Amino acid sequence: MTRFGDFDTLCKDTPSYPWCNLFYRQVLHHNSSVLTDASLPTVSAGMGVNPTCTIPRMGHDGSLGNIANIVVCALSMVFTAVLIWTTNKRKAAVGRIELRTFLILYFLTLPLQLITTGSFLEQGSTALVALTAVHAGLVAAVFWSLLANALVATQVVEDGTPSSLVPFYFFTVCFFAATTYISLDVGLTITHTFGPSNPPAALHSIPVFVLTSIWPAASALIYFGIMTYIVLVVLNEVRPMWFYILSAALFVLSQLDYFLLSRVICKGSSEKIDGSFVATILETAAVGVLYLAWKSITEESWDEDAYYPS
């Protein structure tokens, strides 16, 4: 019976689910009998633990790795870099520094996603576990920075000042450090505090599940609620709200694609690609629309009236 915090079903049925990299090594070192032919041998194994469909490691059986998502991640990096540059140019816009930080953090997740889901590195290797742990830490930090951008938009404290930036960066570092450490402990069993899973086949870790699944969903929902209040009640505007609705819809669609269609695409392509590239496109599009939403409620130059809700 699946419990809260079990990853066994996700690692079996969701191709290119990065957090499975943490459990593969854990199982390999503590109870390798859990692994089936679908996850062995390690030198050519694709992502997942006993997956129903997976892309073989690059260079084995003619595999190019997760080539579609590799290309999309690279293009998304270019697109996000442009967003960072344009955000930085809007000197007078409220929350510019905080949004720029969010975009930088998202940008940093992309090369890690490219590596941790690209079927480059050997399953069970220390390098893959370490990079996956850092990836998890950045994802947790990204969603804190997203939520913090909504808090900054309320102007409870003035944006860009120490009273805003100190807690913003403090909690960004806290989420990154805590999630990275916990993920490393799960993957490498450094202290036995967060691992190994019991029973091994359950791939169980409540902290990793909360920080990589529950926390992102909760912070995105709270962000949407706060921005809805600011746009509709404080600013009494409607048009910017459509940007936030579109961004939320794109994010939800990306998750639905990832968890529901990825295996279908994997099997349909004979394990050449999966749905992760579609999810990455939708996620990056959601970030782009989020930028447009922010742009629509802020001013670009000091000569214009800036947005300061009372």
TrEMBL record:
Recorded hits in Pfam families, A to Z, give:
Chs7
Which GO molecular function annotations are given, in alphabetical order? unfolded protein binding
InterPro entries attached to this UniProt entry? Chs7 (IPR022057)
This protein's GO CC annotations: endoplasmic reticulum membrane
One Gene Ontology BP term is: protein folding
Q: Which PANTHER family match?
A: CHITIN SYNTHASE EXPORT CHAPERONE
Protein name listed in UniProt: Uncharacterized protein
* Organism expressing this protein natively: Mycena chlorophos (Agaric fungus)
